[in-house]
Amino acid sequence: MSYKFTQQSNSARSVILQKLKKQVEGADYDKLPAETGFTYPEISFEDQFTHFVQLLRNNQAKVISTSETELMDQVISELKARDISSLLYGADSPYSQLIEQGINQSGEQVELQDYDYQLTDNKDKLFNHTPASITSSNWAIAETGTIVRWPSQNEPRTMSLVPPVHMIIVDANKLYCNFSSLVKDQNWKDNMPTNALLISGPSKTADIQQTLAFGAHGPKELIVFVMNSPTDINL
Amino acid sequence: MSVNQYTPDRTESKYTKSASTFRQNVQRDLANEELRSNFAGAMDYLMDKRKASFPSNDELETLRDQCKLIKQRALVKLPHLLEQLETKLNENGIKVHWAETINDANEIIAQLIESKGGKNIVKGKSMVSEETALNDFLQARDMEILESDMGEYIVQLANEHPSHIIMPAIHQNKKQVADIFAEHIDDFEYTTDVDTLIGEGRRILRDKFSKADVGITGVNFAVAETGTLCLVENEGNGQMSSAVPDMHIAITGIEKVVEYLDDIPPLLSLLTRSATGQAITTYFNMISKPRQPGEKDGPEEVHLVLLDNGRSQAFADEELRQTLQCIRCGACMNHCPVYTRVGGHAYGTVYPGPIGKIISPHQLGLESTKDLPTASSLCGACGEVCPVKIPIPNILLRLRKESVKDTKGGEGELKGAGSNRKATEAAIWKAWSLLHRVPAMYKVSMWFATRFRGLMPSKLGAWTSVRTAPKLAPKTLHERVKARRK
Ligand code: SF4
């Protein structure tokens, strides 16, 4: 970085901070008014779950109840329905064994691609030769119909962004009532990952005449497989 | 397939980018019926969506109070939070740069890009980069910078500016968008089908994403406690810009910092519901570090540019400081009867509508923006919907006062204060106030006014263009009361 450039930024820094400090010098933080949040009525876990599924569906996500034994049959049938014969997954990720076994045993011609490359040198591959991906997720949020993902070395962030069809596995036992309780309960502030993602449907836009269109830049379709669902949702 | 070269020269643009010709801009845009119907339709839609997303008034008001206090706390602690944010980001491996002016910010960004040898840049939605006119700056240095938010992309193709801070192309209907595509995209098969139009944008932009060496985005919230940059979006272009290229540069105003991670959930909820009536946007992206060893994607370098550009002036006055509570939801413009009729371009500023009227004077000076605070009926709708309870009408009144006040040129005065002061107007008000303070003078002047009422002109400028001139009574009220008592 050029010397001049850093100097300029440093001097801007001290000018800005000085101006601001002059105004709030001696402010007594203890005198700040109390901030009260809204107390939401208690809702049963089943109702939270139903709400979660409903919101995802309103946002055009496909939600399917699944189990370890059903998952891969369902995944394969979704792929076949779309004429997709290749699936990106992350080796050594929470469901990778299940995925590998499922594909091997099915006898279907589905090629499993591992995200075993650096994106920098493989953009064409990810952008143009990866029609679908499957990832795990960390948590879910009922209030907003949201799935939370902390991308990892094995399941990088672009897996849920670039392929046109994204399949994601959600464990209903990891459903939180709202974002606030999740952040507190999982103590995010002491463990923020490189990147945390909240996903609430397929990519969309209403930028042309307020008309909703899906698949703006990210996935056109989001297929959510729910493990341990407390209620029957395949209706 | 190539998108036609887009020219940085905007002097040819349909929309003048100047607030000093506000009155002419308004005449021009009021006469454009298509524009008016585009805005009317969009604002109705956004108002309905917002309303439906707040079924409980109790919840809404509690949240508004809470978020106002969160932002006010962040502002009282602003210099310390900025330092804390910088320390945390540094620990996380993200570099922080400071800029007082838009030129400094652009210069920093250009040099960062050059240090990477970057040529192809994609940008996610960022109003601050509109504020700095970053596109023009980089294009002048032979860099290709492409807007990737669908609305921004359309606006860029048409060589225009966003007319709304959340929905940049809201002034265009689908037919107009199709015309823009036909003019600027080779081999575009004409259609007004929105899915196909978006598909076309997707195809072109995905190609650009995969080839870009630098991605630029804005920031919705920066968390001091953890050193986290938060991006709110529906399309995925913000993620594309921040995750795919090897360098990510985020640019934001110094007021976007909040203290705790726990402050984020209520702010996020209020932001998306106020903006588009969504419980949450499709994506909420929290970035705390560049790519770590062993990780396979994400940028190797992440930079944050913090811009002042007049914000510290607003900060210096406790009333005007509230302007900085803004979370840029756009609700104030959606509910503004003036904005709905004149549209976003008439203001001639980067930020249109009520928030534009109260922030632009700090960025551009009151001289060129002096008409903006007067372009309000003071109906109060903006203040009522603002999620962080900025008393916009009060601030408008305050700016009106600042623009006509007798300036001493001393320290602490707003840039351009007093520029709307007119000698005759000032003299008239001085006389008026004198008359009302001295009863004898008042009496005499009223006697003269009533006796010579025939001399009052029947045309009183704009007032009588749609009204008849008021008439003075033949006798003063005091005289008539006196007569009755006899
Ligand atoms: S002033 Fe208030 S209503 Fe307007 S954009 Fe800012 S936060 Fe939203």
From TrEMBL, chain A:
InterPro entries for this protein: FTHF_cligase-like_sf, LUD_dom, NagB/RpiA_transferase-like
Highest taxon of source: Bacteria
Gene3D superfamilies referenced in this protein's UniProt entry, alphabetically: NagB/RpiA/CoA transferase-like
Domain LUD stretches: 51-226
Name of the protein this chain belongs to: LUD domain-containing protein
Species annotation: Catenovulum maritimum
Automatic annotation (TrEMBL), chain B:
Gene3D superfamilies per UniProt: Alpha-helical ferredoxin, NagB/RpiA/CoA transferase-like
Region (Disordered) residue spans: 1-20
Pfam name, any one: Fer4_8
Keyword presence, Membrane: no
UniProt record, GO biological process: lactate metabolic process
Record flagged with keyword Transferase: no
GO molecular function, one term: metal ion binding
Superkingdom classification of source: Bacteria
Residue intervals of the 4Fe-4S ferredoxin-type domain: 316-346
InterPro entries on file: 4Fe4S_Fe-S-bd (IPR017896), 4Fe4S_Fe_S_CS (IPR017900), FTHF_cligase-like_sf (IPR024185), Helical_ferredxn (IPR009051), LUD_dom (IPR003741), LutB/LldF (IPR004452), LutB_C (IPR024569), NagB/RpiA_transferase-like (IPR037171)
Keyword annotations: 4Fe-4S, Electron transport, Iron, Iron-sulfur, Metal-binding, Repeat, Transport
Name of this protein: (Fe-S)-binding protein
Organism: Catenovulum maritimum
